[in-house]
Design brief:
This protein is mainly alpha-helical and about 250 residues long. The protein has one domain. Helix content is about 80%, strand content about 0%. The protein is built from eight helices and two strands; from the N terminus they run H-H-H-H-H-H-E-H-E-H. Strands 1-2 form a two-stranded antiparallel ribbon. Helix 2 packs antiparallel against helix 3 (about 50-75) and helix 3 packs parallel to helix 5 (about 105-130). The radius of gyration is 22 Å and the shape is globular. The protein starts with a helix and ends in a 5-residue tail after the last helix.
Length: about 250
């Protein structure tokens, strides 16, 4: 009886080991770390309006995204060093924005993020399309690019709002005072939710683009999401079909 029970436990242990191995591969590696950092940032954004403590926590998650994204795009010590420098610069600018509230500081911070994310997304896309095999790392990279795409448009909208106040309006409320810390954090959260709602096509009627240029950019985000999904899915399917042996 004892032998029978021990033999039955072997498949269960094997299944558990396989599940643990799959989970470690899903969250591990350069793209796994980046994916975890992006998800943590997404989940923490709604808390930005609840005070400076949560704002600091969000800043730490954002710094993790900067470091992980540069390391995922081009692994190596140099990328890690540049990521740490950019993260510290971002935290420093964020503190200056908190105390000074200058619009130009916000524009510098948004531009820094925008330039970094564009570089990261182009580099990771090149790696995705160059890979011969479709594995879990390829899927992680493709999902990371999709999430980063939403972040890019957040900073595009922020720059539009800074350059042309009133381009986005929330339920008929007055224009955003970017010099006010609480209002600024609330507007950033709204732009965050707005961008991902347009990226995923879930819809968000609370925040609306008012100017013509803002409307065009919103349409471009929706188009970029559709084009990206179509290209990536077609590419991954073609690679998977190419791996299959020819039928006899």
């Amino acid at each position: 009886m004892t032998r029978h029970n021990s033999s039955e436990s072997i498949p269960q242990e094997t299944d558990a080991a396989r599940a643990a191995s799959w989970l470690s591969r899903a969250v591990g590696g350069k793209f796994g770390f980046l994916l975890c950092a992006l998800i943590a940032l997404l989940l923490s954004v709604p808390m930005i309006v609840h005070g400076w403590v949560w704002n600091m926590i969000l800043g730490l998650f954002a710094s993790g995204v900067l470091v992980a994204s540069l390391h995922a795009a081009r692994p190596g010590r140099q990328s890690l060093a540049i990521g740490v420098i950019l993260a510290l610069t971002d935290l420093g600018i964020g503190r200056l924005v908190f105390f000074e509230g200058g619009r130009w500081l916000i524009a510098v911070q948004a531009t820094l993020w925008l330039a970094t994310l564009i570089y990261v997304i182009v580099t990771i896309l090149g790696a995705v399309f160059e890979r011969d095999n479709v594995d879990i790392e390829t899927l992680q990279a493709a999902l990371c690019v999709y999430l980063i795409l939403g972040m890019i448009w957040i900073y595009v909208y922020a720059l539009i709002g800074l350059a042309a106040p009133g381009s986005f309006q929330f339920q008929g409320q007055p224009r955003v005072a970017w010099s006010d810390d609480q209002t600024r954090r609330t507007e950033f959260m709204r732009l965050f939710i707005f961008s991902y709602s347009k990226l995923t096509g879930s819809g968000n009627n609370d925040l609306k683009p008012v100017s013509g240029f803002a409307n065009i950019c919103v349409c471009m985000e929706a188009l970029s999401a559709q084009v990206y999904l179509a290209l990536v899915i077609a590419r991954l399917v073609a690679k998977q079909i190419g791996k299959q042996p020819p039928k006899k």
